[in-house]
Amino acid sequence: MAIADHIDLRDLPESAQQEVYDFYLFVRQRVLAEQAVAAAGEGALLSEEALADDWDRPEEDEAWQAFQ
To answer: Is the distance from CB of 31 to CB of 42 less than 8 angstroms?
Structure first.
């Protein structure tokens, strides 16, 4: 049951229809941005295990001693 199936915007003045459409675009952009951030974060988590082999070496610990 989609909300769009139950709303008839033709009853609204054209300026109100434009406002509803603008708000839809705003919400859509925000949702797409949130999805992109979530997908990027997931990729980072997936790569952490692969990179751990390099990170957990004694040579890495020695190289980072100067920064601690």
So the answer is: no
pLDDT (tens digit, 9 = 90+) per residue, 24-68? 999 999 999 989 888 777 677 667 777 787 788 888 888 888 887
Give the whole-angstrom CA distance, residue 64 versus residue 62.
Answer: 5
| Structure confidence by residue, pLDDT tens digits, 11-30 | 899 999 999 999 999 999 99
For 13, 17, 19, 39, 67, the CA distances from 23, given in Å and listed in that order, are 16, 10, 6, 24, 48
Cα dist from 1 to 7, 17, 46, whole Å: 12, 22, 35
